[in-house]
Amino acid sequence: MRKVIQTTTLFVSIFTIFIMSFVTYLNQDIPDSFYVYGNQQFRIYQHSQVSVEEAGNEKEVRAEANTSATKAVNLKLLGVIPVKTTYLHQAEERYAVPCGTPFGLKMLTAGVVVVGLTPIDTETGSAYPAKNAGVEKGDIILSVNGHDVSSYTELSQRINDTKGEPATIQLIRDGQQMKVSIQPVKSLTDGAYKCGIWVRDSSAGIGTVTLYDPVSGDFGGLGHAVCDIDTGEPLPLSSGEVVPVTILDVVKGTAGTPGELRGTFLSHSVVGELYTNNETGVYGQLKSKPVENEPIPICLKQDVQTGAAQIYTTISGTKPQIYDIEIEKVNLNDHSPTKNMVVKITDSKLLEATGGIVQGMSGSPIIQNGKLVGAVTHVFVNDPQRGYGIFAENMIENFSDIASEEAAGF
């Protein structure tokens, strides 16, 4: 009998530990808040074992139509064990055109990005003015002695104008503005006063348009930031242009070696402007509709499901094609706004042509059950058939931050 009791106690203890560990996982994985549309019933497809109860103990939770109220709801495992309280924010249902078209981008930075520090040869030997002043790789230099700088030429001129007098540099580091004092030195090479900084002031490349609003002309693409190749940090955008692109060739991806789309700018004509470059993509306005597709609903993150889906992407010319993929995993937490899904290319034609996900496909829209779910963002270097995707919800939120703030949004 004692043995039976001991065995039962051990089993109950293990089961309790398992349940509590699972509740802890759910608490961390499920966000503190969600958007809901109209009178849509709220549920979390990724956690079907979790039931939802309104604060008033109603069994079904629906957002009240035509109100902007926020509701608190209780989530329970198997309808019994409390997991957490989360909040529902009502939003107007959004629609956007899924694109998959390639585009060229030309960016000028706001300030100049420090990509390296270098010694200056002087009459007395090597000097490190910038390094000694505390300038670091990745800093964004905004001005010299109160004069704005937006290019390497402007920075060099302002430093030379000091004639060796201390210069006050205003810069941004980790999102915080600060000032440093630099003592320029006279270069033995050309007699100019320098401070030993390598900077970048522009960038250009090819990406894929994810979504487009035909009413406002707003668009979003890439699904991740345009980053400096040396620092890995997002480039601060001063201004940018969108130009037409045609895809000419594909370098097929293999394990350990990512592939890429190779294309060329079709002309010097500008078809749009860039307004924002942040961790979820690039955003701006286009002068015309990039594809003839009709707008479809934006899928909210709690409605994304594992299983079959499709992407629109262009691997030749200018017109996107539809290819089959599988959404293998959905990550609801907010820790990484660009790695919300793990996707796998399953379409044999796309695999034959590209080997999977390749550079340049970032931004390719993901469609599931007639809704825009998100976009492809990254490739797994050692497994090019797989990669990450971002929720469309995370991208559409940025539309209210660009030119047409009058559009209904989250």
From TrEMBL:
PROSITE patterns per the UniProt record, alphabetical: PDZ, SPOIVB
Family matches, as Pfam families: PDZ_2, Peptidase_S55
UniProt EC number: 3.4.21.116
GO terms, molecular function: hydrolase activity
Transmembrane intervals: 7-26
Top-level taxon: Bacteria
Location of the Peptidase S55 domain: 176-410
Keywords of this entry: Hydrolase, Membrane, Transmembrane, Transmembrane helix
Domain PDZ: 85-153
Protein name: SpoIVB peptidase
